[in-house]
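Dear colleague,

Thank you for sharing your sequence with our group. We've completed the structure prediction you requested, and as agreed, I am returning the results in plain text so they can be pasted directly into your records. Please verify that the sequence below matches your submission; if there's any discrepancy, let me know and we will rerun it promptly.
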Amino acid sequence: MAKSTIEVRKDQQVIHLDAAGDLNVQQAKQLKARLLEILAEPLETHLALDKVVSLDTTAVQLIFLFKQEMKKRSLPVKVSPPGDTKVLSLLEKTGITKLL
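Please find the predicted structure tokens below.
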């Protein structure tokens, strides 16, 4: 199990959420809190998942709902997919990358 981190930082007009390690049900509470924190500020957001080595449906659902809420608010959001080739391949085969 990889060490998990979820960090939020802001520069100028963009909020960045950088996630690393496992992004699953164990981190759901922290991920949800960070996403709600981001929603409190009307800025463009970049979600960097390139250092995520595993994620489950809980994380996918939270990110999907976050993107929907950002869209309702007419705020741009960009998601960098996981860099792990096995995880990315699975997400592409199942069509989940279209949701992210």
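Summary note from our side: Residues 5-98 form a domain with the Transcription Regulator spoIIAA fold (CATH 3.30.750.24).

Kind regards,
the structure core
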